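#dry-run=false #mode=assembly
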Amino acid sequence: MIIHPAVIALIAGSLMVSVMLLLSAFFGVSIFRSWDIRSGSELQLNLERKTYLISTLMMYVLWFQLASFFLFIFTADRLHELFVGAMCAAGTLNVNEYGYPALILKMVNFILAGLWLIVNYVDNRAYDYPLIKKKYALLLVITPFVFLEAAIQGLYFAGMKADLITSCCGSQFSSGEGTVASELASLPVIPLKIAFYSSIACTFMSGFIFLWKENSKGVLFSLASGITFLISIAAVISFFSLYLYELPTHHCPFCMLQREYRYLGYVFYLPLLCAAVTGSGVGVLASFRTIESLNDAVPVTQRKLIAVTLISYFLFSAVATYAMISSPLMLKGY
Amino acid sequence: MIQLSAVTKVYNAGKQNEFTALRNISMSIDPGRVTVLKGPSGSGKTTLLSIIGCMIRPTAGRVLVNGKEITSLPERFLTGTRRMTFGFVFQQFNLIKGLSVIENVMLPAFPCGDPYGTMKKRTLQILDILKIEDKAKSKIEWLSGGEAQRVSIARALMNDPEVIIADEPTAHLDTKLSEEFMDILGEMKSRGKTVLIASHDPIVYDCKIIDRVVEMRDGTITGSENRA
Amino acid sequence: MGWINKQRNILDFALNSLLRRKGKNSALFVVYTGIIFLVSSIIFSSESIKRESQILLENSPEVVVQRTIAGRHDLIPEQYIGQLKSIRGVQEVKGRLWGYYFEPGVQANYTFVVPDEFLYGPGYIVIGNGVSKTFLAGKGDILPFKTLDGSYTSLEVADILSPDSEIVSSDLILLSEYDFRKVTGMQKGFYTDMILKVRNTRELQAITDKIRRILPDTRPITRNEIMRTYEAIFDWRSGILLAVISGAAFAFIIFAWDKATGLSSEEKKEIGILKGIGWETSDVLFMKTWEGLIISLSAFFLGVFFAYIHIYFASAFLFMPVLKGWSVLYPEFRLVPFLDMFQITTIFFLTVAPYTVATIIPSWRAATIDPDSVMRL
Ligand SMILES: Nc1ncnc2c1ncn2[C@@H]1O[C@H](COP(=O)(O)OP(=O)(O)OP(=O)(O)O)[C@@H](O)[C@H]1O
Ligand SMILES: [Mg+2]
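#status=ok
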C-alpha cells in the first residue's frame, strides 16, 4: 500500500460514490416495489420525492466518476517514479493485475451513470413516469459495477509496493507482446486510418439522416457511434499517438495527458467519453419510442444527443487530424 | 374551467390520527367569476383551495383544470400547471424578508426562464396597475399592511394567471384596507380573471363583486348561492 | 436559452439568500476554508519538498557504494577504490566522509560533510543556516565540538551557507578531512561510503551486479533507488498528516450536515413560499446546489490561496516539523512555488466532494417541503 494524498482521495471518492449508489439502490427498490402513479397516497408522494433525491445523487455520481477517471490516470502518472521501469501512467497501471481493470471500470461506470441520467431525463418528460421500473432496474445493474470498481481499485492500491518492477508503455504498447495493448499498437496503420475515417463518416451520415428524416429510429446511428468510439481508441493508440509524440514507436495513451504534449489527451478523451455516453444513449432511447407518453420526448432528446455526439466526434477528429497533419513525423513503410 | 368530481382528501391515511378533511366534493367553477368559500374554521376551505390550486393531490376523485385531468400528474407537471394557471394571495402575506418589493414580485417567474429584462418590465407594469410602483425598491420590512397586501397581489399576478386564489386575504387588514382589497379584486374580475376566495369575513362575502357563495361544513358543501 | 436564464435567475436568488444569512453561513465558511487550507498546505508542501529533493538528487552521484556488516552500514576501506576502478564502465571513484553529530546542548543532530575541496582548510567550518541560528553563530565565531576521546576541539566559522539554499543543507556543517577524523574518530584509510561515476547510465545494471560480485560485503545504491525511497517517505508522511486532518474534516462534515439539516424556521418558511408560488422541487434543489457551489468554490479558492501563501511565502511555519522529519532544526527555507491540476483535483476530492455529499440529503429534504405548507403558516 502506498499512502499518497491522491490515493486517499481516490479511495475516499470511490467510497462516496458507492454510498451514494447504495442509497439510490435502496430507495430504488422501494420505488420498484410500491410505485403506483394513480394513487394519491402519502406513500406514493414520498416515493415521488425520493425520485428527486436519486436523480440528484446520480448527477453527482456522474461528475465524480469523470473526475476520478482522470485523477486515477494522474495518480498513476505521478506514482511512476516509485516503480522500476515505469516512465508514465502505463507502467504504474501495470504494477499489478488490477490497474487496467480499475481504469476500464471507471470508464464503464461513467458511461452507465450517463446513460441512467439520459433515461431519467426522458422519463421526467412524460406525464406518467413510463420508465420508472426500467430506470430502477438499470440502477440495480449499475450498483454492483460501482462496488466492483471500488473493490478493484482498493486491491490495486493495496497491492502497490515501492520498488516493484514493471514494464511501461514502451513495451506494453509495442508490437509483438501478445497483449491487447500491443495488438492495438501493432494494428496496420493504413487500414485502420481508412476504418477510422469511414466510421466517422458513417456516424455523421446516419446522424444527418436522423436529423433530416422524421421516422428513423436511431439504432443505426447508435451502432455507428459505438463502433466509431472503439475504432477511435484503437486509432489513438495505433497511430495518432505516434504523430503526437513525433516518435515512430511510442504508442502510449497516457503521456499525451501531460503538459509536454499541451494536454492534448484531454481534447481526445473528453469528447470521446462524451460521445460514448450520448451515442449509446440514442440507442437506448430508441427502444422507448413505442411508449405513447414518450412519443414526443424521445425523438427530441435523441436529436439533442445526436447533435452532441456529432460535435464531440467532430472535435476529436479535427484535433486528431490536425495533430497528424502538422506532425513532422512521416510513417513510411505502412 | 375547473371541475371537481367526488373529491375526497384524507390526511394521515391508515394512521391513528387519520382525518377526512374533504368528503365527496363535486363542484365546478366558471371562468371570469368571483366565488367565495365560506364556512367555519376547520371546515376544509384551505384544503379545497390547495387541491384546486394544484398544491396537493386528492386522495380520491378527479380534478379537471381547463379540461385536463390533473389528479394523477406527477409533482413536476402539477407545479407547471399551478405556476401558469393560478396566482396565490395568502393570509399572512408571506413575502420574503430582506428582498425588495420588485424582487418579491418577480419570484414566481424565476423558473419560467424569461430574461431578466422582460421580467422586470412586467413587474413594473403590475406594480403600476396596483399603484405601488414608487415602493418598487423598498424592502418588505418597511411596508405598511396595506402595501404588503398589494405586493402579494402583484406577486400573484406575475405569471398572468387565469385564476386568483386568496385564502383569508382580509384576516390581517382593517375594514378600510379590506374594502380596498375587494376593489382591487373587482378590477381583476373586470380584466377577466377568475377569482376564488376562502373567507368568513362578511366584508368579503357580502361584497357586491361576489358572484357565488359556496358554504362548507365538516368537509362537505352545504349550500351554494348564485348572486347577480 | 430558457434553461440558462432560469439557472441565472435561480443563481441570483441563491447568492442573495446566502448574503441574507451571513451570520449563519460565515461560521461554516470559516471552518470549511480552514480545512481546505490545511489539506492543501500538506499537499503543496509534500509535493514541493519532493520536487526539491528530486532536483537535489539529480546532481548527486549515480551510484553510492556502502559497506555492510551484519546488515548494518559500516566504514569502507580505502583499498576498495582500486577494485571499483577496475570495473569496466566506471569512470571515477571517490571516498566520501560524512556523518552525524549530536549536540547535547541544543539537542540537535547535525550533518558533518567533508566536501571534495574544502577551501578553508583545517580549523575552519562552513555551517548551514539552521546551525547558525541555533548556535547564534556568525562568521568568525568559534564553536566547540566534542571529539571521540571526550576532549573539545574549537573550529572557526568561516562562512554560512546562503540562506535560500535547499532544505537539506540547513543542518549541514562542512569541514576539513582532518577535523572530521579528529572529531568523529574515524581512522585513516576508511571512508563513510564511496561514489562512482559511470560512463554510460545504460551500463548501470551491469556495473552494480559486478560490484556485488567482486565486493560481496558492499551494497551499491543507485540514484533512482534513493529517489524512490525519498518519494515513498514523503508520501507516507503526508499521508499520516492527512489522516490526522481527515479526523478534523470528518468533524467538519458532521458540522456541515448539522448546519444544512437544521434549517432555520425562517429558511423553511422561505422555501415553503417559493414552492407555493410555483417553484418546483428541482428548482429548489438547483438553488441549494448553487448555494453549495458558491460556498464550496469560494472556500476552495480562498483556502488554496492561503495555503499557497503559507507554503511558498511563509515557509510553511505551521507544520514543517512533521513533514521534514529527522532534524529538530526548523530551518527557514523557501520552496519553489509549484501548482498543477493534479494537486488541485486531489484537494478537491478530499474537501469539496465530502462536503457536497454530506449536503445532498439535507438539501433534498429542504426542497421537498410541501407546497401547501405556505397556506398554513
Ligand atoms: N396536514 C394535515 N394533517 C392532518 N390534518 C390536517 C392537515 N391539514 C389540515 N388538516 C385538518 O383538516 C381540517 C380542515 O382544514 P382546513 O385548513 O382546510 O380548514 P379551513 O376551513 O381552512 O379552516 P380555517 O378557517 O381555520 O382556515 C382541519 O381540521 C385540519 O386540522
Ligand atoms: Mg384555512
